[in-house]
Write a structure and sequence with these properties.
InterPro entries: FAD/NAD-bd_sf, FAD/NAD-binding_dom, NDH-2, NDH2-like_C
Radius of gyration: 23 Å
Largest sheet: 5 strands, parallel
Oligomer: single chain
Helix content: 25-40%
Number of strands: 25
Protein name: NADH:ubiquinone reductase (non-electrogenic)
Keywords: FAD, Flavoprotein, Membrane, NAD, Oxidoreductase, Transit peptide, Transmembrane, Transmembrane helix
Pfam families: NDH2_C (PF22366), Pyr_redox_2 (PF07992)
Family: Belongs to the NADH dehydrogenase family.
Number of domains: 2
Structural class: alpha/beta
Strand order of the largest sheet: 5-2-1-9-21
Distance between the termini: 34 Å
Strand content: 15-25%
């Protein structure tokens, strides 16, 4: 049986590893990246707490001793379900069974302005880009340090979305402001720096308990984060955010953590796509109307008695779906008469961290809430367990311990020529930085980079900007 898996996130990687070196199956794993990304820690890369390599694991290393798993780096352009063929930019691949594990990408809910100007964080590259911007922002602030009005937008950061990603990122940036940035930039007064977390619902961490929500807000207030609930961001022009209340916030940095949507390749019947850009599947993760095409993880929408509107887009859902599908596919490939197993998600709990010694954990059975230092240790332990690769676990643990005892980290690096030009669409407010940067490049490097008017979006040439694929991993929230 020839199985093609598209996507190497939590779901796709788990499926491929469970099928590794099993008889009667040949596996082709397709992705745009050559590494697996651990999304729950993207925010730590963005805030210079971890290096990108710490949360990334090479796919080929994971399957070095495999006899039946092969990997191709390419972009899927279309799926021909009639002829059982996946079309890509390097050729076509036939399959007996196709599994879509394409994960989710940032959902801007149709707001084109935010899509062009805000910073998402759904891939390692996007996390690095955000890290670069955060550091460069304060370098630029030094140029206007004597003008309080011009300085104000540099000293304000707006995070949109009060889910786990938004809460964790807000806490991490607040800790940088309180402990690290004043030492790096003594010429700036960080007591005037404002961090806003804007959430459209009445509470943060809406998927967790009321106690966790209240405690997370308390922690954020302790760190100096301004939490604005029941409010959405309506507009952002690169210099000013307009809220649904009519209030405005001067800022050059808006980080979008407000939602995700499934990555669906071409060739899927639009009638099968439901809310959140997810594909309808049955209890075996088989796409409705197909006999040999499956979807798992964030891109799949499975209605069950416990979850009539579909399972939550969590890492643990993706992992357990990949594990069960592998088991069922092995039964099919071996000709076993044993019945296939239906999937159901058993919630073991959820957790989120707000910062040093501050975290919340909810365990449903028995119903237990944990907060503070114990929850923080629990959060760290779980993430270390889920990280792929022993070396990565050791490096992350060392980084965390170093930061815990020194209140610092040595990863606040700007790599010229990489951070601001690896996005096919650069935010308008980065244009002055781009133009200034171009003056430092040698002529060959300048070639092909268009100089635009101030109201246009810079689009570097393909030769300068590697294609950045949409994230093929599950949502950055880990379940116990």
């Amino acid at each position: 049986m020839k199985i093609v898996i598209i996507g190497s996130g939590f779901a796709g990687l788990k499926l491929a590893r469970k099928l590794n070196n099993k008889p009667n199956v040949e596996v082709l794993l397709i992705d745009k990246y050559n590494y697996h990304q651990f999304q729950p820690l993207f925010y730590q890369v963005a805030t210079s707490s971890l290096d990108a390599s710490n949360i990334s694991f090479p796919l080929r290393k994971a399957f070095q001793h495999s006899k039946n798993v092969r990997i191709r780096l390419t972009t899927v352009t279309d799926i021909d379900t009639t002829n059982n063929c996946v079309k890509t930019d390097i050729g076509d691949f036939d399959y007996d069974v196709l599994v879509l594990a394409t994960g989710a990408d940032t959902n801007f809910f149709g707001n084109k302005q935010m899509q062009a100007l805000a910073y998402p964080m759904k891939s390692t590259v996007e996390a690095l880009r955000l890290r670069h911007h955060l550091i460069q922002n304060f370098e630029d602030a030094l140029r206007v340090k004597n003008n309080s009005e011009e300085l104000k937008p540099y000293m304000s950061i707006v995070i949109v979305g009060g889910g786990p990603t938004g809460v964790e990122l807000s806490g991490a940036i607040a800790e940088m402001r309180n402990k690290i940035l004043p030492k790096d930039y003594p010429e700036l007064d960080f007591s005037t720096m404002k961090i806003y977390l804007v959430e459209g619902s009445p509470k943060t961490l809406g998927v967790m308990s009321e106690k966790s929500s209240e405690q997370s807000c308390k922690y954020l207030h302790e760190l100096g984060v301004t939490v604005i609930n029941n409010t959405v961001v309506k507009e952002f022009d690169g210099y000013k955010v307009t809220l649904s209340t009519g209030e405005t916030i001067e800022t050059k940095t808006v980080i979008w953590a407000a939602g995700v949507k499934g990555n669906i390749p071409g060739g899927i019947d639009p009638t099968l796509v439901v809310r959140g850009n997810r594909i309808k599947v049955d209890r075996y993760n088989k796409i409705l109307g197909f006999n040999n095409v499956y979807a798992i993880g964030d891109v799949a929408s499975m209605e069950t008695p416990k979850y009539p509107t579909g399972h939550p887009q969590l890492a643990n859902v993706a992992i357990t779906q990949g594990k069960l599908l592998a088991k069922n596919l092995l039964k099919i490939s071996s000709g076993s008469r044993e019945p296939l197993e239906e999937y159901e998600y058993h919630d073991k709990g959820s957790l989120a961290t707000v910062g040093r010694n501050r975290a919340v954990v909810d365990i449903p059975h028995p119903k237990i809430h944990i907060g503070g230092f114990l929850a923080w240790v629990f959060w760290m332990s779980l993430h270390l367990f889920l990280i792929v690769g022993v070396k990565n676990r050791v490096q992350i643990f060392i980084n965390w311990m170093y930061k815990y005892f020194t209140f610092d980290q040595n990863l606040r690096l700007i790599f010229r020529g990489l951070g601001i030009t690896d996005n096919a669409q650069l935010p308008q407010h980065q244009l002055p930085t781009v133009q200034q940067h171009l003056q430092t490049l040698i002529p060959d490097e300048k070639a092909g980079v268009p100089v635009t008017q101030s109201n246009q979006v810079v689009t570097p040439s393909p030769a300068q900007v590697p294609t950045q694929p949409a994230s093929a991993t599950s949502v950055a929230k880990v379940v116990v």
